Amino acid sequence: MNNKVILVVLDGLNHQVAHDCMGYLNALIEQDRATLYPVISELPSMSRPLYECLLTGVTPAKSGIVNNDIVRLSHHSSVFSLAKQASLTTAAAAYHWMSELYNIAPYNAVRDRFTDDPSLNIQHGCFYHMDHYPDEMVFLDAENLRQQHNPDFLLIHPMNIDDAGHKFGLDSSQYRNTARGADIILSNYVDVWLDAGYQILITSDHGMNNDRSHGGILPEERAVPLFVIGDSFSHQPTVMQQTELCGNVCQLLGLVDHGKAYNSALLNKQPEFIRQQPCNTSIKTSASTNTNNQAEKSENSL
Ligand SMILES: [Zn+2]
């Protein structure tokens, strides 16, 4: 596979709220254009540790990014670093902690908010540091980056759903309506991105609880959605681990020897991919930790 990829991380989005409130994405599911998989977040169910998990495939306990106050560069290869090594173009419209993990730490807003430096892992960036920075602006920042730089990998990371959860809790109209708002914004972009040749993944780092926080092991804190849109996905039932997302993005980008675990059942085995294999050898699936998936219906496994 050799695709361009957009990864949308809707910070703090609980799986059930995504399932119930995001009508546009559900419309794509009803048209067999998208699939929703439930994912159980790694622990602790906190932002910075799980940004590292999503972008490197390494659990917080192993990465050392075990709370939000650890301000340093990642010690592991990431989608950004691996893509850059392969001479692909990377970009992100994201919270400033992403810049701290993969570009420069600590974040200096004057220096780092607008980033254009091919030597950095995130080569083209528009970062923000206020949790109420509007999601609408984050998507506009991302679309500007996409149109300006045509990135192979683009991370889009809005914060307003998490912000609403901290202010009003999981079971609140404000939290649900912020998720509905993100769904409406996405409806303006998804077809544009598909037409531009992107495969799209939409997920979250962690969920939310009714104490207006997250961090523990409650199901509502750990259950997050993974929507996949595009013809490089199998759209078949499988059980996806949060640690596998990084490897799956690497596979989609066509990166070789990335060393990351991935779930081969998530991906479509395209005819040209099969033809590229040597004769009389089966397609290597050993990197998958879920080669024989449990074939659970995604909506029923939570
Ligand atoms: Zn939060």
TrEMBL record:
Q: Where is the composition biased (Polar residues)?
A: 283-295
Which InterPro entries has this protein been placed in? Alkaline_phosphatase_core_sf, Phosphodiest/P_Trfase
Q: Known Gene3D superfamilies for this protein? A: Alkaline Phosphatase, subunit A (3.40.720.10)
Name the domain of life: Bacteria
Q: Which GO terms describe its molecular function?
A: hydrolase activity
Q: Where is this region: Disordered?
A: 283-302
The protein depicted here goes by the name: Alkaline phosphatase family protein
Query: Per the UniProt entry, what species is this protein from, by scientific name?
Result: Moritella marina ATCC 15381
